[in-house]
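Reading is simple: each integer encodes one residue's backbone shape. The lines below illustrate:
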Amino acid sequence: MNNAEAVWDLVDHHGEDFASLSDTIWGLAELAYGEFQSSAAQRQALEAHGFAVTTGIGGLPTAVMGEAGTGGPIIAFLGEFDALPGLSQEAGIASPQPLPGSGNGHGCGHNLLGAAALLAATALKGWLAATGIPGRVRYYGCPAEEGGAGKVFMTRAGAFAGVDAAITWHPATTTRVDPAESLANTRIEFHFTGRAAHAAVAPHLGRSALDAVELMNVGANYMREHMPADARLHYALLDAGGTAPNVVQASAKVIYAIRAADLGSLADLTRRVIDIARGAALMTETSMSHRVVAAYSNMLPNPPLREAMHANMVRLGPVPFDAADRDFAAAIQATLTQEHIAGDFRQIGRTVVPGLALFDDVVGLNEPIAKRMSSTDVADVSWVVPTVEGRVATQAIGTPPHTWQITAQGKTPAAHKGLIHAAKVMAGTGADLIADAGLLGRVREDHQSRLAATPYHCPIPDAVQPPIMMRPKDDDLG
């Protein structure tokens, strides 16, 4: 029995417990920085499986870390557990049926993500104990991935110091190893301050902060024509200045998300957006202030680590879905458009397979995967630790991220199969890194050569602190 098969048996041994943990976190559905019960549930699982546990990692109350083993390299598994607002949905139902309560839902599958990563860490811990091979395993429960940049703050605080390699995954519609491409990202709040006045009696005395926001948005829209093709710009109103149309709005706020291929391009684009805001303030005779809320780097690739994870995917094969899994996935697909479904096949450079509801293959390393146009705080970890991220099929082909359809599929047998499959891929990769000094050496060398060419600088200014929430008094899992 090789290393992978031995650690896979340990994943199977613990699989049911961690599928249950995933379901528990699905039901809690807590938002960024408020995941107190979800974090406590993960802490309890770590303690139950014999990890030494540290909480408050990087100064974040809901961050948790478990460590086990002695000597040797340190392999880390990164997990998440935050939900999204407005995506509450009854599990196992292929039509929109929100649950009563907060309205939050796991519409990105982070309940599965964290549970599988913790399962992989538990299996690798058992493998180390059984083989006596020197090595340590860490599990990092990372809060606030959804717009909160939790891992960026953890990275800035040195939480990943000493780690030799980091492994993670994300629930998906296909099974593949990402080519380590993501967009650098910053989120900036712009606050315009004007002067209130009666909009009919004395409009000339007013200076509208809302006008400034609208002019900024117009300027940003015109700039879109002159941005790099892989850049992105989004905004949302935070404060429109009130609800009375006969009052000139004296205060208004807007938040912008700015994305670019790398930090250098992001800095240039950010400068241009700030200049547009300054121009809007000049045009309206208002004042403008701005502050960075969050920021992410672009992912740093590591081909040897990617190849190691892909080798485990190929050895393991596709997720073993059954007919019942495919029937429910087909029901989910019936709520989508053909463009949704075709888009997933296009993402991996394949033609549409009519009637295929769940992915039954492993995407090859050299297949033309489309560039990832989203951002993730995993990217900042990749600059300080060699990092790899896989995708494992847990949901119907065509399911778009951040939708009720993902929430609906989050507790299904298919999702549990994908969770266990992902844990095997990650645990097998971790075992390979510990057992094969040559592989780990190539991983380190590649990472060091990239940092020598482009050193890491945290994109979040030192003065910016995470929006820490107070622990609820009725936290019954604390």
In short: The two ends are 41 Å apart (CA to CA). The first strand starts at residue 52 and ends at 55.
